[in-house]
């Protein structure tokens, strides 16, 4: 069996299930699918090439052959099991619904696929697959008839009878009634021809429905209505309904007359206030005269019990508000429990302004905690545990505080609470409760309320709220310290003109400095937010960075710049062709020992070895043929008289390919119609190489400058060119001996004063311009310029130093690995969290710390540069910090 290859993409929870298939992709199958696809495209319908039945993919060609061999779709559909009989009037309605055991031949075909036992409707599913994909194709190709339009076939349900008689002519005539928008029936109304083909069945007409009309007519019309009802009942009892042609005559179920109700005035407190006043007076008199009447029920409800039946009472929020104001313990408990639930589940919809008096009642409930805090026990009392009454009262007070805390999280509610008359004093009183463990929960709720309402509170020096928060900073409770830090930051944010935060004593500041060293993210973040607000004032910064604690606080802030940083490597590929700097070819001057070795060879070997000594392979370089020939002539012309003739020019150029396999002579066109003859693939060596392959070392000592004495203005503007020592040495030892002998020769002891020595190696400016008389010191420095004794290994025997192809996979693509140490970012990709706050605090120290702050930051300057390089989100902020420091140094 071939592996399943469904054409469509499977999605959803069953996307990974295993499917089996009977599809064999033969030539006949592909030809059939192509014809079927073209047919559906022409018809404008959707084709499922590999439909699923259970967990099997069906072969449409095999299914088509099976059904047509049994006589086609109509024949298979007519072969019924034990299902219901066909509707004699509308034969395709209800026929072969394929429910239960009434699936007939379609069920037998589906069982042939060996599906799971739980596929009870497999017959109907198989019938639907054939109906949607092959039914119209069968009518056109197997029977050679025109199928009905897709609106009456594919776009309708497969629940129905035969389709051969359901052609386009069956739906030409209009229905007896227009099809409503909500009508979902997939079957059309039958035509006259269709109805005459089937005998009349035993089914009766549907039971007529009568619409209810209220009895609101006067009594004098009762007789006429009775007579019309009797006529209507006689008409309903007749089952003989006429059917003429294609129109069905249904009985009329509408009553003969429509009786409109007669309005009756209802007394309300607005249109009849006197009646309601008298009604209440009579009810009170009845209750006074006979209090046991009506079983003690409220007299108003007793008298108007019929009118109040089914009344649900007041709305929930109204009852809660009234219950809190009533002071009844049971109502207060119910109101608080419901408010706790509502404020948690739908706190956004609980608006204080919408329920007047609710917030005031809750604050009044908080006032009662003072009576619990003022509880005094007589001296000598042995049992100091709280009783059940105390616990019950405190629990209800905590519930009221929790409701206010949840409501204050909404900005509108926080603004409303801040404007209450005694709201602020009540919250401060709750935070000033004794330090007993039973009041800790209430204090936390009060701190959360202060944090939410802080931006709406006024801030003054003699404020009673700020000292309370200040005292909590020295508490041993982490929650109180954390809540107080957040509340203080919200209070002074952007409006601390009087420097109220500067009143916090040194003990609290020292504790905050110590807390930032903890591994507690929430507490460290709150401390940094506090320090950011604290350092907005120059006086506070001066107190913060006082030695010796100033150095430590700067180090801790610098450490937090990499808080929870994620190390990693960023790989960057630099692509693009780099244009090399074209230098004029300078052919090295061969030492005499190399020339002597070359003269021992005859031509053309001497020319080939000379090329290898002076040139090396480079695919991107070239040299003109005339320059190469002239260099060869200049080197060996003097030896022609000694019987060593030169190689002819043509033979010399041909010999280049012998010396270098990848080099070749080329002719390039130049602008103006001329030509340029070059040798492509070689370049001049920096230093010559011996015949045996030993690369010589060039002395880079600058012996002077080539000053221009032409006197022209253009020549005078050109810089002087340095003159290098022309010596070429075979080994580093020979080079070192040459430098000590010719460039750093021992000074004359008789010469006074001593000559000053300089380092002129390759443009080095050490000891310039004054020089140094200590020869040992200068020699020790020049020693650092000497090349290594053992040359680095190279894959090119003709090259002294490795080229770009030795360490790059592609010389045109450079791979860079950048070390990263990235901290947290927000949704926009910018820095966030503790590192951002730490760098902002450092920036405040640099701006407002004057000289002391910049001096402290200068000690961490290398660390800041490193962090700026590895932490990309903070790079901009650290750069601003370093710029602030540099500007301060310039000003100083």
UniProtKB/TrEMBL annotation:
Residues 169-271, 785-805 are annotated as: Disordered. It holds the Pfam family ARID. Residues 239-259, 791-802 have a biased composition (Polar residues). One of its GO terms (biological process) is chromatin organization. Residues 607-686 form the RFX-type winged-helix domain. GO terms for molecular function: DNA binding. Residues 26-142 form the ARID domain. CDD domains: ARID (cd16100). PROSITE patterns: ARID, RFX_DBD. Signal peptide: none annotated. This is RFX-type winged-helix domain-containing protein.
């Amino acid at each position: 069996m071939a592996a399943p290859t469904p054409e469509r993409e499977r999605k959803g929870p069953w996307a990974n299930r295993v499917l089996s298939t009977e599809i064999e992709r033969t030539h006949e199958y592909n030809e059939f699918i192509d014809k079927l696809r073209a047919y559906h495209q022409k018809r404008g319908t959707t084709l499922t090439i590999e439909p699923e039945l259970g967990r099997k993919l069906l072969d449409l060609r095999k299914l088509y052959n099976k059904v047509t061999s049994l006589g086609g779709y109509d024949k298979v559909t007519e072969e019924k099991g034990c299902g219901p009989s066909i509707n004699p009037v509308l034969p395709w309605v209800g026929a072969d619904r394929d429910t239960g055991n009434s699936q007939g031949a379609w069920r037998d075909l589906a069982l042939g696929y060996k599906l799971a036992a739980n596929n009870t409707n497999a017959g109907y599913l198989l019938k639907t697959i054939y109906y949607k994909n092959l039914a119209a194709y069968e009518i056109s190709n197997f029977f050679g008839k025109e199928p009905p339009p897709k609106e009456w076939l594919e776009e309708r349900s497969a629940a129905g009878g035969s389709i051969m008689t359901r052609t386009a002519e069956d739906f030409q005539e209009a229905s007896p009634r227009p099809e409503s928008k909500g009508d979902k029936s997939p079957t059309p109304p039958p035509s006259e021809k269709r109805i005459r083909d089937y005998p009349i069945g035993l089914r009766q007409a549907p039971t007529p429905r009568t619409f209810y009309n209220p009895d609101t007519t006067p009594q004098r019309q009762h007789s006429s209505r009775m007579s019309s009802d009797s006529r209507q009942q006689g008409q309903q009892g007749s089952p003989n309904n006429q059917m003429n042609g294609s129109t069905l005559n249904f009985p009329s179920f509408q009553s003969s007359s429509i009786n409109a109700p007669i309005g009756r005035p209802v007394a309300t407190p607005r249109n009849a206030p006197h009646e309601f006043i008298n009604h209440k007076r009579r009810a009170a008199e009845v209750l006074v005269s006979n209090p046991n009447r009506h079983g003690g029920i409220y007299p108003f409800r007793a008298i108007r019990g019929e009118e109040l039946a089914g009344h649900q009472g007041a709305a929930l929020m109204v009852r809660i508000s009234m219950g809190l104001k009533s002071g009844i313990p049971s109502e207060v408990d119910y109101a608080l429990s419901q408010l706790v639930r509502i404020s948690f589940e739908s706190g956004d919809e609980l608006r204080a302004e919408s329920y007047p008096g609710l917030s005031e009642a809750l604050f009044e409930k908080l006032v009662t905690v003072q009576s619990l805090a003022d509880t005094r026990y007589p001296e000598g009392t042995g049992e100091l545990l709280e009783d059940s009454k105390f616990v019950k009262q405190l629990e209800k007070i905590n519930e009221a505080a929790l409701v206010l805390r949840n409501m204050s999280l909404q900005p509108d509610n926080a603004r409303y609470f801040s404007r209450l008359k005694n709201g602020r004093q009540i919250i401060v009183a709750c935070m000033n409760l004794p330090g007993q463990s039973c009041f800790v929960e209430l204090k936390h709720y009060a701190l959360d309320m202060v944090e939410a309402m802080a931006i709406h509170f006024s801030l003054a020096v003699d404020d009673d709220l700020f000292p309370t928060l200040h005292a909590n900073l020295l508490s041993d409770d982490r929650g109180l310290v954390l809540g107080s830090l957040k509340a203080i930051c919200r209070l002074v944010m952007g409006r601390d003109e009087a420097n109220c935060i500067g009143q916090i004593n040194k003990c609290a500041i020292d504790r905050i400095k110590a807390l930032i060293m903890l591994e507690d993210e929430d507490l460290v973040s709150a401390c940094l937010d506090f320090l950011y607000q604290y350092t907005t004032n120059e006086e506070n910064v001066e107190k913060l960075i006082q030695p010796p604690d100033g150095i430590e606080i700067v180090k801790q802030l610098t450490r937090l710049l990499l808080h929870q940083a994620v190390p990693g490597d960023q790989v960057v590929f630099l692509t693009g062709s780099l244009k090399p700097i074209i230098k004029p070819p300078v052919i090295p001057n061969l030492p005499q020992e190399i020339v002597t070795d070359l003269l021992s060879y005859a031509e053309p070997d001497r020319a080939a070895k000379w090329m290898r000594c002076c040139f090396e392979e480079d695919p991107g370089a070239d040299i003109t043929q005339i320059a190469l020939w002239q260099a060869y002539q200049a080197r060996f012309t003097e030896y022609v008289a000694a019987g060593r003739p030169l190689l002819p020019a043509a033979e010399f150029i041909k010999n280049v390919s012998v010396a270098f396999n990848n080099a070749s002579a080329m002719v390039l066109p130049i602008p103006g119609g001329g030509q340029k003859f070059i040798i492509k693939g070689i370049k001049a060596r920096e230093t010559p190489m011996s015949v045996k392959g030993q690369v010589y070392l060039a002395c880079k000592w600058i012996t002077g400058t080539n000053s221009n004495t032409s006197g022209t203005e253009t020549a005078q503007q050109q810089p002087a060119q340095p003159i290098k020592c022309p010596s070429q040495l075979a080994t580093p030892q020979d080079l070192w001996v040459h430098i000590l002998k010719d460039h750093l020769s021992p000074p004359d002891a008789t010469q006074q004063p001593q000559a000053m020595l300089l380092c002129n190696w390759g443009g080095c400016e050490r000891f310039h311009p004054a020089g140094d008389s200590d020869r040992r010191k200068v020699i020790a420095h020049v020693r650092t310029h000497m090349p290594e004794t053992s040359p680095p290994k190279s894959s090119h025997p003709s090259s002294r130093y490795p080229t770009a192809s030795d360490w790059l996979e592609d010389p045109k693509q450079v791979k860079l690995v950048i070390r990263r140490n990235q901290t947290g970012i927000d949704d926009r990709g910018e820095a966030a969290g503790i590192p951002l706050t730490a760098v902002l605090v450092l920036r405040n120290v640099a701006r407002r710390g004057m000289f002391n702050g910049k001096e402290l930051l200068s000690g961490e300057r290398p660390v800041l540069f490193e962090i700026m390089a590895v932490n990309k989100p903070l790079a901009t902020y650290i750069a601003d910090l370093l710029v602030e420091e540099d500007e301060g140094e310039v000003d100083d």
